[in-house]
Amino acid sequence: MTRNFAIGLSLLLLTLTGCGKEGEYFTLNGVTQGSTYHIVFQPKVSSDSSFCAVRDSVALYLERIDNSLSGYNPNSILTAFNENRPVTLDNIFIDNFLASKEMNQKTGGIFDPSAAPLFDLWGFGFKTGTDVTPSQIDSVKSIIGMHHFRLDTLTSSFGTDSLAIVKDNPTCRLNFNAIAQGYTADYIAARFSAMGMENFLVEVGGEIYAKGHNPKGKLWNVGIDKPIDGNNTPGASIQAIVRISSQGLVTSGDYRKFYMKEGKKISHSINPKTGFPIEHNLLSATVVASNATFADAFATYLMVIGLDDAIKAVESEEGVEALLIYNSNDTLKVWSSKGMNTITE
Q1: Of 93, 103, 202, 320, which one has the fewest beta carbons inside 10 Å?
Q2: Handedness of CA 310, 315, 319, 320 (dihedral sign)
């Protein structure tokens, strides 16, 4: 309901301002995956029909991804898989599983979608959290790890092959929240490129892929929010501006997704190795990479390992730039890699 209203409003505004000018940019806004999306694009041919075609295509793309990856959708592939119900996997699910498994290996297990039971335990997954005890953490950790899952090829009686993910323990579950929105931005961007579009920005839940140039003919400018508790409105208080083109950009931080318990901040960034939420001075990690899927996962990884190790990880990862904002004696400080195209406020 909300998503359709937002898209309909965009169309109304478009019609009132008189579309059809050559080279015009259009905007789509809506709600998806428990967050919002904002898309700016220049269609190959500027017209009402072009806008409507793109609008309808985006709605279809978002529905496909929700039906595959959403842990809040009772009818999604992920929900059925986690509940051990018979399910046919689609390419979207397989893509995210393989990308997650690769990142899990690259990060030594720190990035781990199989930590879904741990996220649920702390109240950041698909279930309400409880009072967490060390014994609960130890119990949950025994079913965490991507080694519990393997990708198999199944051959039917008709001789056709299909892929299936097999888990060695029925209580094992997956949660793709740390990669799905970056993947969604890439998914839509790839289809925009296939439509012949050369200039667009796709933002889903803060995860971005941008190509070409903005309506002013320049690189796309992305504001990086100050990572201070209570800064819940994107763009309300900006720490820096990053310029990108043909790149993905993702920011991960602990200043919006957290709760307070007995005077202590419980962050949604959880270390699957220890089983506990992070406690360090790195407040947000912004990653720029060739795609938003990798940037999403890598930013999550940086937030877990903390400032010093994050700097080392960025400097050793070819093709990746980052901007890290941290707390030093109650003052916001910024570390930026050499190749980051940044304007610091």
Answers
A1: 320
A2: positive
- The predicted-structure confidence for 248-261, as pLDDT tens digits, reads as follows 999 998 765 654 56
CATH number at residue 307: 3.10.520.10
Does residue 142 form part of some domain? Answer: yes
Q: Please report, for residues 12, 105, 257, 339, the alpha-carbon distance to residue 17 in angstroms, rounded to integers and kept in the order given.
A: 9, 51, 38, 39
Query: How many domains are contained in the chain?
Result: 1
What whole-number distance in Å separates Cα of residue 220 and Cα of residue 297? 22
d(C-alpha 297, C-alpha 299), whole Å: 6
Mean pLDDT across the chain? 86
Q: 320-330, pLDDT tens digit by residue?
A: 999 999 999 98
- Residue closest to 282 by CA, chosen among 296, 269, 293, 295: 269
Distances (CA, A) of 201 to 42, 123, 180, 252, 288: 9, 32, 17, 19, 14
Residue 145 maps to a domain: yes
In a domain, 62, yes or no: no
Q: What phi-psi label fits residue 123: left (phi over 0), alpha (psi between -120 and 50 degrees) or beta?
A: left
In this prediction the pTM is 0.87
Q: Give me the residues paired with residue 256 across strands.
A: none
Q: Quote the distance between the C-alpha of residue 339 and its chain's center.
A: 23
Domain of residue 305: give its range.
29-41+88-345
Tokens read off for 249: 């950009």
Helix (H, G, I), strand (E, B) or coil at 193: helix
Distance of alpha carbon 123 from alpha carbon 105, whole angstroms: 26
